[in-house]
Amino acid sequence: MSCFRLENVSYRYSRSPVLTGIDLALEPGEILGLFGHNGAGKTTSIKLILGLMTPQQGTVSVLGGTAGAPEVSQHIGYLPENVMFYPQLTGSEILNHFARLKGASLEQVPRLMEQVGLADALHSRVKTYSKGMRQRLGLAQALLGKPKLLMLDEPTVGLDPVATADLYRLLRTLRDAGTGIVLCSHVLPGVEPYIDRAAILTGGTLKAAGNLTALRRQANMPVVLSVIP
Ligand code: ATP
């Protein structure tokens, strides 16, 4: 069962198309890098997989079910690009809140905070967190309930090199345990060593998808890859 499968998917918010004829799938135990410049359609693709919107054309299936169905959504973890939390609450209170919303056990909260390097900040208010700490709290939130599909939008923004390396190590461990992971990014360096496949969106169409080493051998790829400096 695929983590998700987009078949001939097109989407427009108003008149101009944002995504056109997208075919893309993610299998369990795989890290897919979804690349493209600002406005290329990465977040729109994620929203379609989350079931927040329905495409005007094509089909979106997620974990063998319908995108947005509660029994599907409970197995998805999502870290948006700009993560925001109530500053007056502690990290623990926030994760407990999201765990309840997700129907996940509260017992996992201290372990998740430790996993993302926030054990010492468990009971500190989020207003005292640095940007990187908030980002890691966002990751812990996304990991609640052991998601089968994890989607991360620019997850390393605001993280220092050590925290970035820690994050990728964690993602590899999750991948090896069978989680399907999507990493959205504008840029390739730093991300490349950690992904199994790349998908490159330009102007709402999928210009390439596959193993990066193989993609680089294709004749037109330098042009396509130049959108992800
Ligand atoms: P970024 O890297 O800047 O986050 P992205 O690749 O995630 O960009 P999207 O956010 O999917 O791109 O946006 C794709 C296009 O859709 C852009 O032209 C954007 O202006 C447009 N768009 C996004 N959200 C809406 C909306 N709610 N209403 C109208 N147009 C939108």
Automatic annotation (TrEMBL):
Chain ranges of the ABC transporter domain: 4-228
Domain of life: Bacteria
Molecular function terms from GO: ATP binding; ATP hydrolysis activity
Name recorded for this polypeptide: Cu-processing system ATP-binding protein
Keyword field contains ATP-binding: yes
Keyword vocabulary terms for this entry: ATP-binding, Nucleotide-binding, Transport
Cleaved signal peptide residues: none
